[in-house]
Amino acid sequence: MNAAALSDFEVDWLPSATRLLSPARTLCHQPFDFIVVPDLLPAASAPALLSDYPQINEAGFFPYTPRQCGPRFNVLVAALTTPAFADALGAQVNIERLSQYPTLVTLCGRMNKRHGTIHTDSRSKVATALLYLNISWPDISEGCLRFLANAHDIDAVLVPEIRPLFGTLAMFKRADNSFHGHLPCEGERKVLQIAWVVNEEAKARKIRYGRFSRVIKRLFGRWDRKLGAGRDRNAGHLD
């Protein structure tokens, strides 16, 4: 299925550059560039998109594979990765022609408590966008994204923490101080991640690592859950 085959209703909920200008958005340029758009996707699109979301039992982010997803979800990914939408996103965070960089799409279905430690993202990334796809989230801080003022304090938030609710987009320009993370959580947490990387070699390397990581976690998932179960809330790592 391509965008032309969608009904008028379904076309209306595809992401557009106009939605990036939502009055509900948060846009910051200091100490680093980031944007949060809570309504990039309308709630009415959730049933169709989530029915097409793949089953991911391992914890973490893994490379997107179209054949493992349903047709409407694949149309969503295609819309999010068009050059026009990439450039519109880049313009929000002071990146000229973001579409010139290779695009890497990964998906998450679950998290372990070792995930979410404070980090900046690796130097091989130019920018990262996270589109959250969870219908609901408990009234807790665990698992809620935080943009941070430093690498040592998970409570040094720059803006209110971001609940990973369906249709919410958080996107930032990678920098040496683009600190972010979340408090430890375990269980289902659906996220579509789009990273623009410096070159095709970096993209290929990340895809290989992601596929290998999924195999290892499939074999040793119980050990993986135990690995970071007791991590400190302010733990961080360099990518």
Polypeptide structure, described:
The protein is 24% helix and 20% strand. The chain is an alpha+beta fold and 239 residues long. The strands form 2 sheets. The chain has a 7-stranded antiparallel sheet. Strand 1 and strand 2 (34-37) form a beta hairpin. Helix 5 (200-219) crosses helix 6. It is globular.
Q: Could you give the count of β-strands?
A: 9
Helix/strand-derived category reads alpha+beta
Shape: globular
- What's the multimeric state? single chain
Looking at CATH, the homologous superfamily is q2cbj1_9rhob like domain
Roughly how much helix do the residues carry, as a percent range? 10-25%
The fraction of residues assigned to DSSP E strands is: 15-25%
Q: What can be said about the biggest beta sheet?
A: 7 strands, antiparallel
User: How many DSSP H or I helices?
Assistant: 6
Order of helices and strands: HEEHEHHEEEEEEHH
Quickly list its features.
single chain, 239 residues, alpha+beta, Jelly Rolls, 7-stranded antiparallel beta sheet, two-stranded antiparallel ribbon, 6 helices, 9 strands, 24% helix
Present the secondary structure layout.
Blueprint: H1 8-12, E1 26-28, E2 34-37, H2 46-51, E3 61-63, H3 71-80, H4 83-92, E4 103-111, E5 125-132, E6 146-147, E7 169-173, E8 180-181, E9 187-197, H5 200-219, H6 221-227
Antiparallel strand pairs: 1-2, 2-7, 3-4, 4-9, 5-7, 5-9, 6-8
Helix pairs in contact: 5-6
